[in-house]
Each structure stands twice: as structure tokens, then as C-alpha cells.
Design brief:
Layout lengths: L2 H9 L16 H12 L5 E5 L2 E8 L4 E8 L18 E3 L2 E3 L3 H18 L7 E7 L7 H12 L6 E4 L8 E4 L1 E10 L2 E14 L21 H12 L2 E7 L10 E9 L3 E6 H8 L1 H5 L14 E10 L2 E10 L4 H15 L4 E5 L7 E2 L5 H12 L7 E2 L15 E4 L4 E2 L7 E3 H18 L4
Helix pairs in contact: 1-3, 3-10, 9-10
């Protein structure tokens, strides 16, 4: 079985993670990974917590030196936006399309094949591996495994979190925070003309829906455009609908029903919704101060809206090189108090998570760069825009990088991985492991 065949099997499992709809990745995918590894003589343990699954295993003897990690869960899809079946790997030229092909099942397949070869080698230490099923909703499984390894005295010196893209070692990544702002509906009679306007995403350079990849000044976020429209039109919002999928997925479009004041019928507009939507522009420009430098700075995107129990609820995705909820909450509250007095604010993050910040001269970075050059790939260490589960291990002193194949449209329609990149990946992972866990 080669990497493309294995990826096709993995993509065929619908491992969508969508807590809002009560959807969890099924047990069949991790069972397939376990059984496949077992057929190669590699034992692993199936772990379950709160209906989510992960696999954990070890090869080699001695001190733990290296941990491989990847995730098999995926974000929801809007099938009407796809040109192919998202759960059937479709190869066109050098691109293999399918949900999870780049994020992150291509990495799962590559690590599995690397483990198959490494298990035949006498190593000078242990290689640990884990495949998790809840990375897309916060990574509680990765946190559990990190804590377990800490308790058992098995924390490795190095970690390759195979949840990156671009065939470049990612040495910095920000931490993610979730913000929930809610206001009660506040109806008022206003005379005017009823209208409707749809705002659509535009990502002219990097085609993705991943919130962490959104770049102000280049990309157009439909919710930010809607807010800018309301702030400059004098209109009043009536209702909002959109293709809202997940907290870290930018909606492809949103539709605003609004009232343009003037001659016409009397209509009940909603002042609460109007104020909340007009506050989006200042919210995404809130001057949050991070702890460390990031190429991407601080990004704030408004990706989810709902109406719950008489209240309008807006959820923001925040990425910052910071661990402090207090700094973010203080800054956001100042914006809210000025623009939406009386709104309720909640900031959430995992206090046990940090962020990725590895020095470019660390041994694991050099090992990856040397291995890539061996296979004709020249690369430099970079910062990645999204958060990843390596953040649960770095607070314990584990030296980590994130890594993955070339691909695109992550979290968006027509997600793909470059086949030529994927084919070399198992050998790259094997070579890096051998450089860090020497043969006996």
C-alpha cells in the first residue's frame, strides 16, 4: 500500500467534527488506523474520552526521543461548493482532492508508512506516536496525552506535529482564543424601505476558509464587509443569515435583511443586532498586545452568528502569541463598552495550552532541513498562521515543529494535497526520525 492508496482509504471516512450539530468523528477511522498498523506488526492503544478517539503507541526501546502526532478529524463541508465528492479522493494531475487531504490525513498516512519502515530498524531510543480525533475543536486528546506522558515520565525531547502545510518546518504558531458576545434583541418601529444584501468572501491569493490564514488588506471577510456597510449606510438590521460552519472557518457568504430609513412602510428593525454588527469593524481592529512577536500579528475574525433565546450571539476567533485571557478580555471589553453597552462578553481558551516558539537552531529544525535537502527540497523555517496541538507539549519543554505537505484550500471547498509532495513525505519523516533517534 502506497501513501496515495492509504490516503484514499482515510479520506473515505467522514470524520467531520461539528459540535454545533452534535457530530463527532466515528470510531471506524481510528480502528482502521490501528488495524492497519497492527497488520505491519505495530501495536497501538485506542483511547476514548467523551466520545472522541485517539491512538497511542511506541516503537523502539530506551528513552523517549521523538513523538509523531497528527489528527484524523476534519472540519464540516458545504458540499454545493465542491467540484468533487469531498469524501472520495480524486486525483487530477498533481493534486489529490478530498476533505482532510492536506489537513490532516495526508500527514496521518505519511507517518503510518514511516512507522512501518522505522519499526524494522533497531533504534537508539523510543519513537512515540499518536493520532487524535478532536484537533479541530480544541485538541483535548492531545492535552490528555501530553499530561499522561508527563505523569509517566515519558515526555520526549522532540516532537513533530504533522499538522502543517508547505513542506517547511513551522517553528512558531499562535495560540487560539474564542470570544462570545451576546446582546438581547431590541425591536423598534422605523419607516423605510426593506432591502437585502449578500456579502461574499474573497481570497484572491491563498484560497482557504481557515480563519488563521485570513489576511486583512488582501482578503475580504463577508462579516467585516457587512459591518462596514452598516456603519456607513445609516441602515438598520432586521436579520442575518449565512453559511456559518465553525468558529475557525470564515463563512463563504452572509445575507443581511435591513431597512433603509425614509419613505415607506413601518417595519420592526432590531437595534441590538444593528449595534452588534456595526461593532464588528472595531472588534477586529482591537489593539490586543501579544507576549511575543508574530509575523501575522494578532488576527480577529467574526466567523459565527446565531440567535439564541432572544439574544444575538457573535463568536470571534482570535489568534495571538499570548497565553493571557486577561489581556484579550480587557481590550475587547473596552471596544464592547463603547460600541455595544450592556453586551455580555466571554473569552475562552485552554489555560494549559501555550504556543509554538522553537529556536531555528534547535536540533529538530536542523534535522528536518537536512532531511529535506537530502530529498531535493530546499526550505527555511517559517511561522504558521494557525494554532496546532504542539501547544500542549511546548509548555513542558518539548522542542517541537509543525510540518506537512504542499496543498491548499485548507478548511475550504476543493481542499487538495500535492501528490508529488505527498509521495516523498513518508521518507522525509523516516529520515528525520533516524537523525534524532540514531540506529544502535
Amino acid at each position: 500500500m502506497d501513501v496515495l492508496e492509504l490516503l484514499a482509504e482515510l479520506v473515505s471516512f467522514d470524520t467531520t467534527n461539528d459540535p454545533g450539530k452534535g457530530i463527532k468523528p466515528p470510531k471506524e477511522c481510528p480502528e482502521f488506523i490501528r488495524d492497519t498498523l497492527q497488520s505491519w506488526g505495530i501495536e497501538s492503544e485506542l483511547i476514548e474520552k467523551n466520545g472522541y478517539y485517539a491512538l497511542y503507541g511506541e516503537i523502539g526501546e530506551g528513552e523517549p526521543r521523538l513523538l509523531f502526532m497528527a489528527h484524523f478529524d476534519v472540519v464540516p463541508v458545504s458540499r454545493e461548493e465542491w467540484d468533487t465528492d469531498p469524501f472520495e479522493l480524486t486525483v487530477k494531475g498533481d493534486r489529490a482532492y478530498g476533505r482532510g487531504s492536506a489537513d490532516d490525513k495526508g500527514n496521518v498516512a505519511s507517518i503510518m508508512l514511516a512507522l512501518r519502515e522505522l519499526s524494522k530498524t533497531k533504534l537508539g531510543g523510543k519513537i512515540l506516536f499518536t493520532f487524535t480525533g478532536d484537533e479541530e475543536i480544541g485538541g483535548a486528546m492531545a492535552m490528555h496525552i501530553a499530561e499522561r506522558l508527563k505523569e509517566e515520565g515519558k515526555l520526549p525531547e522532540y516532537m513533530i506535529n504533522a499538522d502543517g502545510i508547505g513542506m517547511r518546518p513551522i517553528i512558531r504558531r499562535r495560540k487560539g482564543f474564542g470570544i462570545r458576545i451576546s446582546v438581547p434583541a431590541e425591536k423598534i418601529l422605523i419607516r423605510g424601505v426593506l432591502k437585502e444584501k449578500t456579502f461574499r468572501i474573497n481570497t484572491p491569493v491563498v484560497e482557504t476558509r481557515h480563519a488563521a490564514y485570513f489576511l486583512p488588506g488582501v482578503d475580504t471577510h463577508p462579516m467585516i464587509a457587512l459591518s462596514h456597510f452598516l456603519r456607513n449606510s445609516g441602515a438598520f438590521a432586521l436579520s442575518l443569515e449565512g453559511k456559518f460552519l465553525k468558529g475557525n472557518v470564515v463563512p463563504s457568504e452572509v445575507t443581511l435583511r435591513y431597512l433603509e430609513p425614509g419613505e415607506g412602510e413601518e417595519v420592526k428593525a432590531d437595534l441590538g443586532l444593528t449595534r452588534l454588527l456595526k461593532a464588528v469593524v472595531p472588534l477586529v481592529r482591537a489593539p490586543v498586545k501579544p507576549e511575543n512577536y508574530s509575523d501575522y500579528g494578532v488576527s480577529i475574525t467574526p466567523n459565527m452568528y446565531s440567535f439564541e433565546n432572544g439574544r444575538h450571539v457573535l463568536r470571534l476567533d482570535v489568534r495571538a502569541m499570548s497565553r493571557s485571557e486577561e489581556e484579550i478580555e480587557s481590550t475587547i471589553r473596552e471596544v464592547i463598552e463603547f460600541n455595544v453597552p450592556g453586551a455580555e462578553l466571554e473569552v475562552r481558551s485552554n489555560e494549559r495550552a501555550g504556543y509554538l516558539f522553537t529556536h531555528p537552531r534547535e536540533g529538530i529544525v536542523r534535522a528536518m532541513l537536512d532531511a529535506l535537502e537530502m530529498f531535493g527540497v530546499r526550505a527555511e523555517p517559517v511561522e504558521g498562521p494557525g494554532a496546532a496541538d504542539s501547544r500542549f507539549f511546548t509548555p513542558y519543554g518539548v522542542k517541537a515543529i509543525d510540518f506537512g505537505p504542499r496543498g491548499g484550500n485548507v478548511h475550504g471547498p476543493n481542499e487538495y494535497v500535492e501528490v508529488s509532495s505527498l509521495r516523498v513525505l513518508p521518507a522525509v519523516y523516516r529520515e528525520v526520525a533516524l537523525r534524532l533517534v540514531r540506529k544502535v
